[in-house]
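Protocol step 4 of 6: structure prediction from sequence.
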Amino acid sequence: MLVACEANGPAARGVPDDAGPPCVPPVDNTAPTYSELFTQFFAPGTPGHCATAGCHADPGHNEWLCGNDNASCYAGMVSIQLIDPVHGDRSMIGDPELSPLSWINPTGNMPFDATMAFPTGRDAILAWVGACAQNN
């Protein structure tokens, strides 16, 4: 059985609602934490700057709320299914065809004012997704 069809939701990606057991992080996990990703890539003044007013932070946020800290940004990404907290290794943010991040998906449209390749950000996000996209 598939989940209700949404433009970029699990059903659109062909992920069934009974997609198996939860992701288990590797024992030798060397991936960055979400807190590190937020500080390096999503906070104001960073290459992704999601948590910037007029972007995905108040006031005037659009589409989803990142907020001004890693916890609220993670929750915002979960709310629009960029992050799958159960099957984190399948999170849309790391999908080379569906991620809105141009760092991951060459046709992605984010960050809106700086769409370009960014291997450092790509590699960090993909490592974190591969380690189950934890809220850590």
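Step 5 (inspection) to follow. The chain has three helices and no strands.
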